[in-house]
């Protein structure tokens, strides 16, 4: 029986060592992994239950071995869950990297839009300047055209007046001759 108790103590020592490793892993992941904290609490509760059962070892060796198996399974599950949490953390990092890439692309697109808006403003300014010059040129051209018409009309009027004067003069001369 003493040999069996020594074996049980060795197994318990191994369990305690294994639980220490779990505590170390959990301590490293504590900053972002609240779910692991809950499981560590459960493991501590399980450890306390194991300690209580060690006192009951004298009455049931088979019960202790069953508990040892259950703790090993729990330790394996915790390690599996820690691995899953690490995988999740890596996926989050990948997602964050992708978001940064997309933000960079959006900033590039925004710069392109700003450049296009600037070009449109410059084009609008050129159009406004051209429209203003066109209006000034149109007013100047209309002034020149009106001046040409007035000059032409004045010239024609002078020629016509001279003819009328000539005709009147001839009529007066003809009237005098009669």
TrEMBL record:
Protein name stated in the entry: Uncharacterized protein
Cross-referenced Gene3D superfamilies: Designed four-helix bundle protein, Helix hairpin bin
Organism the protein comes from: Lentibacillus juripiscarius
The organism's place on the tree of life at top rank: Bacteria
């Amino acid at each position: 029986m003493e040999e069996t108790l020594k074996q049980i103590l060795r197994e318990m020592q191994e369990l305690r060592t294994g639980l220490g490793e779990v505590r170390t892993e959990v301590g490293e992941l504590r900053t972002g992994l609240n779910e692991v904290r809950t499981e560590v609490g459960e493991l501590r509760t399980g450890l306390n239950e194991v300690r209580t059962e060690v006192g009951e070892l004298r009455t049931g060796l088979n019960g202790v071995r069953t508990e040892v198996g259950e703790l090993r399974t729990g330790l394996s599950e915790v390690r599996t869950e820690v691995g899953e949490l690490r995988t999740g953390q890596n996926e989050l990092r990948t997602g964050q990297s992708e978001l940064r890439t997309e933000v960079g692309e959006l900033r590039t697109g925004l710069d392109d839009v700003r450049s296009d808006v600037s070009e449109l403003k410059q084009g609008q300014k050129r159009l406004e300047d051209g429209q203003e010059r066109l209006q000034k040129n149109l007013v100047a051209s209309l002034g020149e055209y009106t001046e040409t018409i007035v000059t032409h009309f004045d010239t024609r009027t002078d020629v016509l007046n001279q003819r009328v004067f000539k005709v009147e003069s001839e009529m007066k001369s003809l009237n005098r001759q009669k």
